[in-house]
């Protein structure tokens, strides 16, 4: 079964049922992969959070994917209710390890053309980190890397 075949449960579960479902899920020790491997077709209600519960959540430090994709993938400031046209895409980026401070990053060359020129300038890890850490929490450094048109 592919992840695309999984359907979202109809509504969030009430808190008393949520605790029972959480205990039952935890007792199986199978995790999400175990659910998928078992052929589950509905996302368990324990994974669904009401929109008002997550409305104030923000993604900080989220600009990397937007810069390298040349705005093909936009970074979201807040969780949104997706529209009814097409799927909503979420991408999680986890960075760790040794980063080469001399390596230059920027928009992926295959995503830029004369008709779709780069929106962001190339940058090094040190340049990006300097801008990122100089901003207040919740402020993006995207504008610092935009090319002037």
Provide a brief overview of the structure:
InterPro entries: IPNS-like_sf. The chain has helices spanning 15-28, 31-37, 51-54, 63-68, 125-134, 142-145, and strands at 7-8, 42-43, 104-105, 123-124.
Structural description of this entry:
This protein has 149 residues and is mostly helical. The chain is 30% helix and 5% strand. The chain folds into two domains: 3-48, no CATH class; 50-149, no CATH class. The protein is built from six helices and four strands, in the order E-H-H-E-H-H-E-E-H-H. It is elongated and about 55 Å long. The chain starts with 6 loop residues before the first strand and ends with a helix. The model is unreliable at 1-13 (pLDDT under 50).
What descriptive keywords fit this protein?
149 residues, mainly alpha, 2 domains, two-stranded parallel ribbon, two-stranded antiparallel ribbon, 4 strands, disordered N terminus, IPNS-like_sf
